[in-house]
Amino acid sequence: MSKKNDLNSTWIANFGESKKLKEQWLEASKTKLPLVIVGDSGVGKTFWIERSIAQRAGEQKYQLVKVDYSLKPDFFENTMRKLDAHKLTFLCWENLSLGSESEIRNWMQWWKEKKYLLDESLYIYWEIQSGELKKIESLPYLSDFFDQMKSFAFQLLPLHRRQSDITFFVLSFLENANKDLKKSVSSMDVHFHHYFTKRNFKHNLHELRDFIYSLVAFSSKKQIKLKQVPIHLFENHDSIIPVRTGISLSDYEKAIISENLKLVNGNRTKAAKLLGISERNLYRKIKEFQLEEEA
After folding, report:
1. Which residue, 228, 213, 206, is CA-closest to 182?
2. What is the CATH number of domain 31-157?
3. Which of 68, 219, 228, 277 has its CA 20 to 30 A from that of 245?
4. Which segments of the chain belong to CATH 3.40.50.300?
C-alpha cells in the first residue's frame, strides 16, 4: 500500500460524531442524490468519496470524471461528451470557485435540466475545502448553485474533534509505514497518546501520517519513545490559546507550563525550549506552581 495513494486501509470512524456521519454517508450513498462533502485539508474527503463510489458501483465497471478547476480541467463541452458515453459514470467537482462564471453557469443550467432525470448511470460529487466556502458565498452565481446542493452536504470533522479515532489512525499509519519503508517498529510508548491528542495537526490526517512516517524512517528500534523525538516536532505554531476574562495571569502561566510539561512527558529541557525560558527559570516556576508531579 502506497503512502501517496491512501490515507488508511480501514475506514476509521468508530466513535461519536464521526461514526454517525459515516453511517449517514453510507445511507446517502444508497440513493441517487448528489453528495457534497466539505472539510479542511487532509480530513479524508477523497477517501470518503472513494468509499461511496465503491458502494454504488459494486462489481460494475465505471468511469470517474474529475473536474478540478485548479488543474485546468476539460471545458464543459468536453466533459459533456464523456458523460454521454452511456456507461456508469461518477462525476466529481473540485475547486469550482476557481472556475469562470460562464463555466459555472453552464453547470448550473445542466443541473437544472438534469436533476429530475438522473438515471442509474450517473452520480455526482462536489468536494469543497472549508476555506473555499467564503469564496463560494461571495460569488452570487456559485452561491446559488451551492444553495441548491447544500441539502446533500456533509461536513467532515477535523482531527482534533476525533480524539477517540486518533489511536486507530496511528496504528494504521504505523503499519503502512513499516510496509512502505521496510521497517519493523512494533509500537510507540504510552506517552505519545497525550502528545497526539494535544498537538494541533493543521493538515489533519496528512500531517499525522507524515509525522508517523518520519518517526518510523529515523527509528532503529522496535519501539519509538517520546523522549527520542526531536524538539522541533513539539513546536505548535498554529495552536490557539483560549482567552477568558476573570482569570489571573499567574493561572494562565501555570496552565501553559503544565500543558507543555505534559506534552514532553516531564522533560524539563524540552519544556524550557518550547516555553522560551531557561531550565533554571522553569525549575523555579515548577516550584512556585507546585508542578513537581508533572516534571
Report:
1. 213
2. 3.40.50.300
3. 277
4. 31-157
125: nearest Cα among 8, 43, 46: 46
Amino acid letter, 247 = I
CATH architecture, domain 241-295: Orthogonal Bundle (1.10)
Tell me the pLDDT tens digit for each residue of 105-147. Answer: 999 998 888 776 666 688 999 999 999 999 999 999 999 999 9
CA atoms within 13 A on the CB side of 172: 20
Count the neighbouring beta carbons within 10 Å of the beta carbon of residue 204: 22
Question: Which residue is it, cell 441517487?
Answer: 32
- Name the segment(s) of the chain with CATH classification 1.10.10: 241-295
Retrieve residue 108's grid coordinates.
Answer: 448550473
Do 212 and 159 touch, CB atoms closer than 8 A? no
| pLDDT tens sequence across 203-257 | 899 999 999 998 999 888 999 988 777 777 777 655 556 667 777 888 888 888 8
| Phi, psi (degrees; rounded to nearest 5) at 2 | -90, 140
Q: What is this structure's pTM?
A: 0.77
